[in-house]
């Protein structure tokens, strides 16, 4: 159990039957009345964000989230298969739990599988990936001052905006959190 007075950013709690991660918290001591803790909570299964106030003495169950490194093997219809590199156990995960997180991940890449009580709810791709551009319009030199970009398709099928000097066949580094181009490799 954790009391609301001990809340910190990143802590996961069980509250009202859901699992939330504390994004933001603030201890408020109004001039009149009792102190309280104002929080922003992110539902880690659905991704929704709610604001909630707690009394500092209120207690919540602390949720233990297990993050395990697993290798992404392949996709078979609605299921994505991952392998534990230590035990070689393979587990299928539905596309509903994965969502959009594998759009920059190639087969045989390592990912983090997030689960609570054995139920997988999310897959975290590596922070940075290197992918080859498969489709890209040629860059046209012209009257661009700074920061001109063009759309390109990478080998996983995802769309990325890249600078004009990047061409088809180049390998680029992408930040998977934002989907932004970082550099050529």
From TrEMBL:
<dbReference type="Pfam" id="PF01132">
    <property type="entry name" value="EFP"/>
</dbReference>
<feature type="domain" description="Elongation factor P C-terminal">
    <location>
        <begin position="129"/>
        <end position="184"/>
    </location>
</feature>
<dbReference type="InterPro" id="IPR012340">
    <property type="entry name" value="NA-bd_OB-fold"/>
</dbReference>
<dbReference type="InterPro" id="IPR020599">
    <property type="entry name" value="Transl_elong_fac_P/YeiP"/>
</dbReference>
<keyword id="KW-0648">Protein biosynthesis</keyword>
<comment type="pathway">
    <text>Protein biosynthesis; polypeptide chain elongation.</text>
</comment>
<keyword id="KW-0963">Cytoplasm</keyword>
<comment type="function">
    <text>Involved in peptide bond synthesis. Stimulates efficient translation and peptide-bond synthesis on native or reconstituted 70S ribosomes in vitro. Probably functions indirectly by altering the affinity of the ribosome for aminoacyl-tRNA, thus increasing their reactivity as acceptors for peptidyl transferase.</text>
</comment>
<dbReference type="Pfam" id="PF08207">
    <property type="entry name" value="EFP_N"/>
</dbReference>
<dbReference type="InterPro" id="IPR014722">
    <property type="entry name" value="Rib_uL2_dom2"/>
</dbReference>
<dbReference type="InterPro" id="IPR011768">
    <property type="entry name" value="Transl_elongation_fac_P"/>
</dbReference>
<dbReference type="InterPro" id="IPR013185">
    <property type="entry name" value="Transl_elong_KOW-like"/>
</dbReference>
<comment type="similarity">
    <text>Belongs to the elongation factor P family.</text>
</comment>
<feature type="domain" description="Translation elongation factor P/YeiP central">
    <location>
        <begin position="67"/>
        <end position="121"/>
    </location>
</feature>
<dbReference type="InterPro" id="IPR001059">
    <property type="entry name" value="Transl_elong_P/YeiP_cen"/>
</dbReference>
<dbReference type="InterPro" id="IPR015365">
    <property type="entry name" value="Elong-fact-P_C"/>
</dbReference>
<dbReference type="InterPro" id="IPR008991">
    <property type="entry name" value="Translation_prot_SH3-like_sf"/>
</dbReference>
<dbReference type="GO" id="GO:0003746">
    <property type="term" value="F:translation elongation factor activity"/>
</dbReference>
<keyword id="KW-0251">Elongation factor</keyword>
<protein>
    <recommendedName>
        <fullName>Elongation factor P</fullName>
    </recommendedName>
</protein>
<dbReference type="Pfam" id="PF09285">
    <property type="entry name" value="Elong-fact-P_C"/>
</dbReference>
């Amino acid at each position: 159990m954790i009391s609301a007075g001990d809340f910190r950013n990143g802590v996961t709690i069980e509250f009202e039957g859901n699992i939330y991660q504390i994004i933001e918290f603030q201890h408020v001591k109004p001039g009149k009345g009792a102190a309280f803790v104002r929080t922003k909570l992110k539902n880690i299964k659905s991704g929704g964000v709610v604001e909630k106030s707690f009394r500092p003495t209120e207690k919540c169950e602390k949720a233990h989230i297990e993050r395990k490194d697993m290798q992404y093997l392949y996709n078979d219809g609605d299921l994505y298969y991952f392998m534990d590199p230590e035990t070689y156990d393979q587990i299928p995960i539905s596309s509903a739990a994965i969502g959009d997180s594998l759009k920059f991940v190639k087969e045989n890449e390592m990912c983090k599988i997030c689960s609570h009580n054995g139920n997988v709810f999310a897959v975290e791709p590596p922070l940075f990936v290197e992918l080859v551009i498969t489709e890209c319009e040629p860059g046209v030199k012209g009257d661009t001052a700074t920061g001109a970009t063009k759309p390109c398709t990478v080998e996983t099928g995802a769309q990325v905006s890249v600078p004009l000097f990047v061409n088809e066949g180049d390998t680029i580094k992408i930040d998977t959190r934002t989907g932004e181009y970082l550099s050529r490799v």
